[in-house]
Amino acid sequence: MTLTVDELEIRLHEAESRLESTKAELSDLATMGTVVTSMLEQDTMLSVVMDMAIRLVRGEVGIIMLEEEGELQPKVTWGVDAEFAKSLMYVDETDLPSYCFRIRETIILNEMSITSEDGMRIDCIISVPIKTSERCHGVVLIVNKSTGVGYSEKDRESLEMLLNFVAVSIENNRLMKHRLRQQKQEQELAIAGQVQETIMPQDVDKIEGVEIGAAYYPAGEVGGDFYDIIKISDTRFMALLGDVSNKGVPAALVMSAAAGIIKSTLHAQPAIEVSELAGRLNNLLVHEIVKDKEMFITLFFADFDLKENRLTYCNAGHLPGLFWDDEQSKTIDLNEGGPIVGQFEGLEFKQGEVALHSGDRLFLFTDGLTEAEDASGNLFGRERAEQVFNVERGMTSKEFCSRVKQWIDNFQEGAAEDSHDDFTLLHVRMC
Fold first, then answer.
1. pLDDT digits (tens, 9 = 90+) for 77-91
2. In the chain, domain spans
3. Which of 69, 252, 275, 359 is the most buried (most CB within 10 A)?
4. Cβ–Cβ contacts within 10 Å for residue 233, how many?
5. Domain spanning 31-178 has what CATH number?
6. What does the pLDDT look like over 246-257, one tens digit per residue?
């Protein structure tokens, strides 16, 4: 078929018009994409996208649904609610938006001519997934066209291009929220670590006639362990080892408050009995500090009187201390005390007492030691803790703490990282 010059000019003009129209549409879509990906607030972005999508294909009403915990949830509804969308049964007794989400492909239904229960006439529907190459985030459903005709392949291409930008925006939003949560956690851990560092003594003052070793072995997240050595006089000091039930900043703050209360009380009343000190700390924590019903402290108080050669102790819900009686060559469990502190007002605490001689030793530790797991899930346990205490005797207190760490490392060889917990050791030896 031979075309005349006039016919060729007409067709060329039509092609140029289509090209210009396509260029304009692509430019509009690029502008829409820039707007969508630049918006930080997801709910606002989705509202804007709903308006863009309906205008783009000359739709009448629509809905945007996003996946949350395995279910599509409505986020923006313009004339269409989630109940209506879910009532559109499609294939295998699956509603249209869920099926579109599952197969991750656009579905166009034209020439429907049906009426919904609320009297809405439905002529055509287009359902488009919001997806990246790795994940489908949701679905956009648009019902009817204002022009009265069905949805075309051009409508499909335009919506899919727009929703590609939406999927990228959702991904960016989630990555940003994840990063912000990560930054917040990192900041909290840094703060908790600083608090913990200020509480735990860096260098224990030398006390004549006594050898003291202490070590804290963290395992990732900052835990609630703490220890302190408080010198009351030239012949008397108190050793403390505790564990707050929580982790992070809350535990660090409670830990700091407890340490401050103990120090201020000892400064005001240096002769206070350890049982009374435990009771006073408990009541102050209950009234003024601990507001969380899940937070409490286990604490071991050890009051060394070198003039009277006497150790007075109180075990407030902590693991019993191990005491080596060198004269009798045996290990004693130090159990006397009471329950945890920080939860129940008016508790009474008991205290125990043992005589001190040259060669006697006290070993305190937190539950991270006894709850350390090997590759098979077996716990290190208290029996092994007592074994290492009885076996590793011919060394300084600091060397003993290092040796305990070696025992734990050997025990946990091959175990998963998440089975490691922080633990704290305190060892006192009478010279």
1. 998 889 889 989 888
2. 31-178, 200-430
3. 252
4. 10
5. 3.30.450.40
6. 776 777 778 888
